[in-house]
Amino acid sequence: MIAIFSGTRSDHPMADLKEAKRLLSALSSEPLAALEELAHWLESVTAEASFKPETRAQLVQLIDEAGQLPARKLAREYLGASRQGKLQENRHWSVIHAFWKASALGYVTCLDAYATGAKGGDALKGSVPLLAVRALRCLATQLKWLYLRYGPLEERVWAMIGGVYALVEARKFARTKVTVYPGVPAESTAEQEFLRVAMLSACSPDSLLPNEIELAEKLIAGATAKFLLAREHQPETPYWIDLTAGQPAARIARAPQPSPGIRFFGAGPAFADLVALLQQIRNTRDYPPMLGVGESLTAEAALGVLEHLEACWSTRLPERRHARHRVKSRLTIAWGFDGILEVLAPGDSLSFDAGTYESWIVENVSVGGFGALVPQVRGDWLRIGCLLAMQPEGGDNWLVGVVRRLSRPSLQQAAVGIQTIARGAVPVELRVHTGHIVSEGSETGILLDPGSPDGEMQLLVRAGVHAPGQSFSFDLNGRHTVLLPVGVPERRNDYELLRCRHLVRDAA
Q1: Are 368 and 321 spatial neighbours (Cβ–Cβ below 8 Å)?
Q2: Which residue in 427, 442, 494, 505 sits closest to 472, CA to CA?
Q3: How far apart are CA 349 and CA 389, in angstroms?
Q4: Average pLDDT value for the chain
Q5: Are 75 and 129 contained in the same domain?
Q6: Helix 190-202 vs helix 210-223: crossing angle, to nearest 10
Q7: With a threshold of 0.85, does the pTM exceed it?
Q8: Is the predicted pLDDT of residue 81 greater than 70, yes or no?
Q9: What's the Cα-to-Cα distance from 182 to each of 110, 186, 187, rounded to whole Å?
Q10: Do residue 378 and residue 460 come from a single domain?
Q11: Which of 325, 321, 315 is nearest to 270 (CA)?
């Protein structure tokens, strides 16, 4: 082992294997500091020109292994229920992402030396299956952390993913099983790791919250052994990716142009397993511990992730319910429960500042909503599930919508998909009924589409106002209405959307 460091002596601190291990053993016990130092070591080792390919590969593996525990600890803190301040959160994300990016680049650099026939590169042949699996694992994790911030995504990442997999496939190593990390008995292959990252991309992470992305990634990782990958399209492989294009996976809306780099993939037998799990949960309301219900997710959110994956894994991919039409117009935006209340009834909201209205650019419109560009993202309020009041250019009414998709094509801009949930809304003063007891004070709610026919209606209330078994009453336009909540389609930090039956009586 020591022999790989013989020959011309490098001045790099890790040129000697024994000294490298000593440096790694002296890392800080604080995960953030340790991972930051490891990212710097990876960058240094990858860039050191005097290292032989075998030397570099040995060191990249050692440093990567040293970072697994602190990376897991920091990830739990970042995604945990008790979040720290925004500055600390940003620092956590930056350090974690930097580590995975540096690890991925280190492995790709080693594989490139082997692929290009660089001097000493052939010595890596026996290590290629492991190096490729780890490279793809690190690239997938780097990409996941970009998804957690909704981008911007780096095209270079997809170019490396395609290049690594094309290499091992061409050298017949794609299905060689390896133990990925010491102490972790599960084996994997380069093909499984490639499917893991491709399937996560195909499952629309831009429509999931961070903890939901984490659960989706975990479920995908556990099912990769049953996913399918093929050179020819078949009914069980509804997605495709071009290994040479440097682009993420896409569903087959129409057949892609033939190319040697195109691969087709799908969930395969894993889809039936997912359907069975969903049916079991619906029948028993018993959630397996791996779903994290009660820890990081509510039961409704976990079930929503499973249903989201069910739609994405199905061979019958969901079609758009409404046709989209390209337009270019402006959309005035207010956000949050109080933001909507402010535009509907100025002066009744608790904290909204009318000066914070935003103007977004509508790029497409359908019966169900809008696709819009946010020219400049201000603050950190924009997220999946965010409540919006929207006034189209030239209009005088306010629509109510919810952000369903979010991506960042650049650091300054965001692209959003908005579902319209109401074309009209009115504030109402609610009396809360608990059995025969009626509250003395009132709570402000927002009645959606108040002119809709009798039957079910939707009501927005602030988070924490509604409790099971309660009902609400209010007077509007000379009528006394009692609302009986029968479901909660949406629950977020600042609001709940209630589905209600109502009974209308003449006001006394």
Answers
A1: yes
A2: 442
A3: 14
A4: 89
A5: yes
A6: 140
A7: yes
A8: no
A9: 20, 10, 11
A10: no
A11: 315
